[in-house]
Amino acid sequence: MGNEFTSVLMRSPFLYGLLSLVVFLFGGLFVPGEWYQQLNKAPWNPPNIAFPVVWTVLYCMIAWTGFKASKSNDGLLLKLWFIQLAFNAMWSWIFFGQQWILLGLANLVVLSSLVGLFIFRSLKTSHHAMALLMAPYFAWLCLATSLNLYIFIYN
Predict the structure, then answer these.
(1) What angle do CA 61, 131, 23 make, to 5 degrees?
(2) Most distant CA atoms of the chain, gap in Å
(3) What is the DSSP string of 73-134?
(4) How far apart are CA 144 and CA 108, in angstroms?
(5) Number of C-beta neighbours around residue 19 at 10 A
(6) Could you report the per-residue pLDDT of 69-88, keeping only the tens digit for each?
(7) Nearest CA among 93, 118, 91, 120 for reference residue 107
(8) What is the CATH number for 71?
(9) CA-to-CA separations, 132 to 16, 109, 119, 135, 139, in angstroms, rounded
(10) How many whole angstroms separate alpha carbon 135 and alpha carbon 5?
(11) Which domain holds residue 59?
């Protein structure tokens, strides 16, 4: 009975939506404060209002991708999804909560690599929809990495 419940839960869109929501809310605990406002930021830094809007859409796509990965019977895709979500959760705490700019940059490099691997694996195993769902996230992570790098270099 326990294994059957676990199997059903692991393939439920509710689980992936809930996990993504928890990560989204956790990240929201560590917001840019006065410290961040004082930093030299990249000229291409988006307006502050863009971040919650973009992240809301991305987390919906991330959640749906997790659900699709759970149904794909590809254990590596599912592991990559969970690991990237953990690194995603850590970034706001590292960067805004602890103000560790270099460690935040390292986290983004690893996170971007994990998402890139997820996309590559999805394409390689003919799960094109998952790759397409994660592509905007990967692009946003590349932007975030460039912003983090700029802050590291110029502050």
Answers:
(1) 35
(2) 57
(3) T-HHHHHHHHHHHHHHHHHHIIIIIS--HHHHHHHHHHHHHHHHHHHHHHHHTT-HHHHHHH
(4) 8
(5) 18
(6) 999 989 999 999 999 999 99
(7) 91
(8) 1.20.1260
(9) 18, 20, 8, 5, 11
(10) 32
(11) 2-154
- What is the distance between the alpha carbons of residues 102 and 90, in angstroms, rounded to a whole number? 13
Q: Could you read off the pLDDT of 30-74 as tens digits, one per residue?
A: 888 899 999 999 999 999 999 999 999 999 999 999 999 999 989
Both tokens of 59, joined, read: 């987390």
Q: How many structural domains comprise the chain? A: 1
Which residues touch 6 (CB under 8 Å, ≥6 apart)?
Answer: none
HSE toward the beta carbon, residue 118, CA cutoff 13 A = 31
Distance separating alpha carbons of residues 121 and 3, to the nearest angstrom = 28
- Enter the tokens of residue 144: 């975030």
Q: Give 9's pLDDT tier (boundaries 50, 70, 90).
A: low
